[in-house]
Amino acid sequence: MNTTAVAGPPLSLEFRRVQAISSRGNQRIRVTPAGELFAYLEQRDCPRGEDWSAPWPDQPLRRLSPAEQRQLASTLIASGFLELPRLIVVAGRDGFRDEIDAALGAQRHSVTIERAPAPAAFARLRAALLAIAGPPFSA
Questions:
Q1: How far is CA 40 from CA 14, 59, 64, 71, 78, in A?
Q2: Each residue of 13-47: pLDDT tens digit?
């Protein structure tokens, strides 16, 4: 019997924060449909045009419980993330870009925010992913 099964459609999420000036401090978090949690914090300055010095880790940090997976799916739906525009941009050169790619069953939606305040729906999902990844991603 599979104890990691989650009622409902499979969920996958990926969050990326990419800084404009230096890749040091870039963050990425991924939750797979199997509930595997991967997280990576860039520790180096990468060559111009590269956001990451290494691929995703081979092993997940941990596997989310079915309850955690259901909570993330609920946050995705209840937050209104799936209704957000795909691109929210403020002109400029500095700052950062936050991206979330979400899939819940056949539903897929990606949102990119550059140098703009995140709408509540985006901020809520981002906060849930940062919290579930734990330190150093969460405060």
A1: 11, 11, 17, 22, 27
A2: 999 998 877 788 889 999 999 999 999 998 888 77
How wide is the angle at C-alpha 127 spanned by C-alphas 137 and 66, nearest 5°? 95
At 82 the three-state DSSP class reads helix
Give the Cα separation of 13 and 34 in Å (integer).
Answer: 11
For the stretch 82-106, what's the b/e string if a residue is b when 16 or more beta carbons lie within 10 angstroms of its beta carbon? Answer: eebeeebeeeeeeebbbbbebbbee
pTM above 0.85, yes or no: yes
Place of tokens 């459609």: 9
Residue closest to 18 by CA, chosen among 112, 82, 108 = 112
Q: List the end-to-end C-alpha distance of the chain, in Å, as a whole number.
A: 37
What is the spatial distance between Cα 83 and Cα 117, in angstroms, rounded to a whole number?
17
